[in-house]
Amino acid sequence: MGFAYGLMVIGVYLTFRVxxxxxxxxxxxxxxxxxxxxxxxxxxxxxxxxxxxxxxAGFIAGAVTGILNTKFKILHLLASILTMxxxxxxxxxxxxxxxxxxLGQDTVVDWFVRVTGLPSYISTPLLFGLICLVTVVLxxxxxxxxxxLAFLATGNNMQMITSQGVNTDTFIxxxxxLSNAMAAITGALVAQNQGxxxxxxxxxxxxxxxxxVIIGETVFGDKTISRALIAALLGSVLYRVAIALxxxxxLGSFSITPSDLNLITALxxxxxxxxxxxxxxxxxxxxx
Length: 288
Description:
Layout: H1 6-18, H2 26-42, H3 47-70, H4 76-95, E1 99-101, H5 108-116, H6 120-143, H7 146-156, H8 158-163, H9 168-194, E2 196-198, H10 205-220, H11 225-247, E3 250-251, E4 254-255, H12 261-287
Antiparallel strand pairs: 1-2, 3-4
């Protein structure tokens, strides 16, 4: 699950850390990707084509948020909330009902199991891990190109890059679109893995994404863009491991249930944010 949601986490990193654009659209674009992929597969399209269709739908959703912010001057946070709310109704319209089952339908997960000959508990994380690895490598390459550097500068120093004649609006629209395309691909992969798409499967996505990014940065560091991208991906895995460990925790008659996940996530984020400051204080105290 950490690798399955890894693309979404990398997308969240691009908007929050690279573009400095707080984007809540992913809560709606992830189930949008699942809905588009599920409908396409049940209509007879290839599972791979359905993922491409999901990515296009996610990009459009993110681009709408970017356009609302850049062209209509709506605050980025409010623009993303408006798009996220609209996507709930759109997702219901796409599926025609609250959920769609994919039982009996061929998916990329089934295809990879047949190709590798490995059991699903090995082939599925391997497939999602390979997809995330390829994505990270391509992003690292892109962000070291001239356009990629302009993309980084848009979030780091917008006034400077604007003075160089760069249209920052285009970079913001495309960047937020790319982030949501990755979230939509995650939704498509999760739906194909779980065998169903649900309109509520995106609830809490942004919180999980932020938690993964912060945990990754705290544990692995973010001194370079390459290291930060890898840290975000590994942070997604650590987040899912922490959730699994928490759900298995029992103290006498007390046990943690799935309804406590939001509380656990909030505590993980708090700990991840506090740890660097505690580290600095310890290092400062030792140096005296």
